[in-house]
C-alpha cells in the first residue's frame, strides 16, 4: 500500500499476473494440428483443380457410322465427369455411334456400340409423344418401353382413360436416337427410336392417334 503526500493511504498496487507458460507437449500438439489442417486444405485445393484427359469428338459422327481416330481428340476436364478416359482411345476407334454425335461433345460410353452392332438391323421410327406421356429429361441413348395408351371410353376417369383400361406394350428396350420438342404444340415431343422392324407399323399407327407413351428403363 502507498501513502499520498497528504498522509492519505493510496490504493494498493496491483501485482502483474504471471505470464502463462506453455508446456512443451501443448506446443508440439498445436503445431501438429496446424500442419494437419494445412495439409487437408492443400489437398482439397489440389483435387478441386485437378483435370482429367477425356475423349472429345473432333468431327460430327452420324448415327451408326464407324468412329475413326480422326474423329477423336482430347480435352482436360476438371471435376467428377462421367466420360471416357483419353487412354481408352484404341478401344473406341472402330466402334459405331449409337446416335449422331456432335463435334465438341464429350464422348460417353452409352454413345458407343460394337462394330457389329446387333441394333444395325433394326428400324428407325419417329413418333409423336404427347406432353406427360414421356419421362422428363429423355435424351438420345436412353432405353424405353413403348406403350400404346388405350382410347378413353364412356366410363373414363378424370384423366380421360378408362379406369379398367391397360396399356399395350409395343416395343421393349427401344433405343432413343433423337429427341426434340414439337414446335407446333406445347410440351409434345418428336422422338426417333430404333425398334424391331415388325414393331414399326404398330408404332406409327399409335403415334398417328396420339396414343404413344414411353417408360424409361435401365440406368437413370
Poorly predicted ranges (pLDDT <50, ≥5 residues)?
Answer: 159-164
Oligomer description: single chain
Average pLDDT works out at 77
What is the strand arrangement across the widest sheet? Answer: 5-8-7-6-9
Order of helices and strands: HEEHEEEEEEHE
Cα separation of the termini = 84 Å
Characteristics of this structure?
single chain, 220 residues, alpha+beta, five-stranded antiparallel beta sheet, two-stranded antiparallel ribbon, 9 strands, 26% strand
Description:
- The protein is of the alpha+beta class and 220 residues long.
- The protein is built from 3 helices and 9 strands.
- The protein has helices spanning 24-49, 89-92, 200-208; strands spanning 51-57, 72-78, 96-97, 112-113, 123-129, 143-148, 168-181, 189-195, 212-217.
- Strands 5-8-7-6-9 form a 5-stranded antiparallel β-sheet.
- Strand 7 (168-181) and strand 8 form a beta hairpin.
- It is extended, with a radius of gyration of 34 Å.
Task: Provide a compact summary of the structure.
This protein is α+β, with helices and mostly antiparallel strands and 220 residues long.
List the helices and strands and how they pair.
Layout: H1 24-49, E1 51-57, E2 72-78, H2 89-92, E3 96-97, E4 112-113, E5 123-129, E6 143-148, E7 168-181, E8 189-195, H3 200-208, E9 212-217
Antiparallel strand pairs: 1-2, 3-4, 5-8, 6-7, 6-9, 7-8
